[in-house]
Description:
- By secondary structure, the protein is an all-beta fold.
- It contains no helices and 13 strands.
- A hairpin with a 2-residue loop joins strand 3 (14-22) and strand 4 (25-32).
- The strands form 3 sheets. Strands 1, 2, 3, 4, 7, 10 and 12 form a 7-stranded antiparallel beta sheet that branches. It has a 4-stranded antiparallel beta sheet with strand order 5-11-8-9, with no helix packed on it. Strands 6-13 form a two-stranded antiparallel sheet.
- The protein is globular and about 35 Å long.
- The chain starts with a strand and ends with a strand.
Amino acid sequence: SKAINCEKTDRPWGNYTVLQEGPNFKIKELVVFPNRCLSYQRHKFRGETWLVTEGHGTAIIDGEVYNLNTGDLLTVNSSNWHQLINGTNGMLKIHELQWGNHCIEEDIERK
């Protein structure tokens, strides 16, 4: 595995930083701005495990709603439709562990 230069990638919902990656995994920090959300999406070749490191939010996985608080851990398996939502006035920070055969940005399907 290798450490990454930790450059931020800006998105309309916030930003992410790749912290480390290897052949079958990638670790990112996601920062979701207040009252923003990621798209409803799924991945064919990877699963994701989220650790909430700061703030509160909501996750939707295949239509089920989960309240997220600091310290919570949630796993999204490949092919699960999922969305991460920050409906609060504070920042939501998530450490995301991607695992699978292809941990690449192109492995995304949006609804």
